[in-house]
Design goal:
The protein has 342 residues and is an alpha/beta fold. It has 9 helices and 16 strands.
Length: 342
């Protein structure tokens, strides 16, 4: 069975904005407005939902968030849905989403990362619809570094489109951008050089498979549930195997180590041809680094493990399409990821 790719966006299409997890506090609303205007400047109409309150850790009660997200994803007039950002507890939506409607509806592009993995990865696994793990709406105004693409480019691509991203080999290692003080920021601060790192050994990597993955802290809570069955997805959509990616948002190395062990024991990586690991600013511990945590948990897979990929919480952002066919190449002189929407 083929992966279902949403229809490419065209000027005049509508993009829905809702917060399945955390909303936007008042002091950051101007940044939200800047991001919306940038999307509108591409020729789209932006429809903002009611679940946007930023006064707490969720934007609205779970039933309201689930209803609004389901409505946007099943509205044929809305061609993409993008949240302002992630959050903490989108897991409470999963039993409330209308999965039967989502399986039969024409697919809609869903974009995001962090806690949005809690929703997007199950969407791909359970409905076969491609989703985009990439920058959120609040990140959209940043100029995309050379070698990378924006989610706004991916959602316009036709079926069969192939694109290659090259890491810019610079990232942000210190500080953060204050959107309240500077809501119109458009330039990433990439203050530190860095390349991809092979963790499991030496030698070149050249491997293919369908992409699936997300944020470790979020997905680890879904292991053993019907929402994270990568083996069933592989049997149906990727008999050739998967390229699985994970990234740590902020938990220390011991916690990430436990999370990844649990995901491996639950079968999340069973059909992986390789594992990509996002660059992280999450802390090491006195006895374990983040790299060591990954290798301790995933080394027994005996597949290539490539770390420091730009697919996590550290800018810049290399969008990955859940469900797309991927090919990762990593040598001493070259690193690239090619994705094909077929």
């Amino acid at each position: 069975m083929s992966v279902r790719y949403p229809r490419p966006l065209r000027p005049g299409d509508r993009i829905g904005v809702t917060s399945p997890s955390s909303g936007v506090p008042e002091e950051l609303r101007e940044r939200l407005a800047v991001a919306v205007r940038d999307v509108e400047a591409r020729g789209y109409e932006v429809v903002t939902g009611r679940c946007m309150d930023g006064g707490g850790h969720i934007s609205a009660p779970a039933a309201d968030r689930a209803a609004e997200l389901t409505a946007m994803l099943t509205d044929p007039g809305i061609r993409a849905v993008v949240p302002p950002w992630g959050g903490e507890t989108a897991i409470d939506l999963l039993p409330l989403l209308d999965w039967d409607r989502l399986r039969t509806a024409e697919p809609t592009w869903v974009v995001g990362y962090s806690d949005m993995s809690t929703v997007m990865t199950p969407l791909t696994l359970l409905t076969g619809a491609a989703t985009v793990h990439g920058n959120n709406l609040m990140d959209t105004p940043y100029r995309v570094p050379q070698g990378l693409v924006s989610w706004l480019d991916i959602v316009t691509a036709p079926p069969g489109h192939r694109f290659t991203q090259l890491p810019p080999e610079r990232h942000r290692a210190t500080g953060y951008d204050d959107y309240a003080e500077h809501p119109d920021l458009r330039t990433f601060t990439l203050d530190t050089p860095g390349r991809w790192t092979r963790l499991d050994g030496d030698g070149d990597v050249d491997v293919e498979g369908r992409l699936i993955g997300g944020c470790t802290e979020m997905l680890s809570n879904l292991t053993g549930t019907p929402y994270l069955d990568t083996s069933a997805f592989a049997r149906t959509h990727a008999p050739e195997g998967l390229l699985v990616y994970v990234e740590a948002g902020g938990h220390d190395a011991l916690t990430i180590c436990r999370n990844l062990h649990g995901m491996r024991l639950a079968g999340f990586f069973d059909t992986a041809n390789a594992v990509l690991v996002g660059r992280t600013s999450a802390p090491d511990t006195s006895s374990l680094t983040q790299h060591q945590a990954v290798l301790d948990a995933l080394g027994p897979l005996n597949v290539p493990i490539v770390a420091d990929v730009e697919c996590g919480h550290v800018p810049p952002y290399l969008p990955l399409v859940n469900g797309a066919r991927g090919r990762v190449v990593h040598t001493s002189t070259r690193s690239e990821l090619t994705q094909t929407l077929d």
